[in-house]
What does this fold into?
Amino acid sequence: MHDPAPWDAGYRQATQPWDIGRPQAPFAGLDYAGRVVDVGCGTGEHTLLAAERGASALGIDFAETAIELARAKAAARGIAARFQVLDAFELPSLGERFDLALDSGLYHTWPEVSERQRYAAGVASVLEPGGMIYLMCFSERTAGDWGPQRIREAELRETFSDGWELERLERSHFELNPGMPVERADAWLVVARRC
It folds into this structure.
C-alpha cells in the first residue's frame, strides 16, 4: 500500500504532472448522473466536472493537501461537491453506494497486479448493480520507465471480466504539464458496468 506522505509533499511543493487545471479530455465527453465517487481525485477536477453536470459528487484522495486544494477550487467556483481524505482501499468504510466511479490515473499507481485487482474489487463493492466505472491509466505504449506502471490491455480485460461488463476499452492519452518526457502519455480508457 502506498504511503501518503510523499504524495502529500508533492502537492505542497509543486503542480503535479497530471494536474492540468481541467479534466482530462476523454472524461469531458462522458455522461455523469446520480451518485459519483472520484477515487484518487487529486485536486478535484473530475469531481467538479461531475458536480457541474448535476451529479452528487464525492472526491476521495489520501493526500490531505490535494483534498484541501480540491475544496478550495469547489468554493472558488461555487460548485457543491464533497471531498474527503481516504485511502482508495478503504472505500467500503464510507458506508455509501454509488452509480459511477471515476479513476483518472490511480489504477496504474500500484506496482502489483494483485493490488490493482484488489482495488477494482473494492470499487465494485460500492457500486450499485448496473453502476459504471470510467477509468484511464497509462498503457504499455508510453515510452520510457518514468512515472507509473504501464498497463497492458490483457490485464484490463481480465480485471474487468468477472462481475463486470466491459463496454469500452480504447486507446486514449493523458495530457501532461510541461517538463515531462512526453507531452501526452499513451493511455487506456475503460468504461465498465457492474453486473
In short: The mean pLDDT is 95. The CA atoms of residues 114 and 159 lie 10 Å apart.
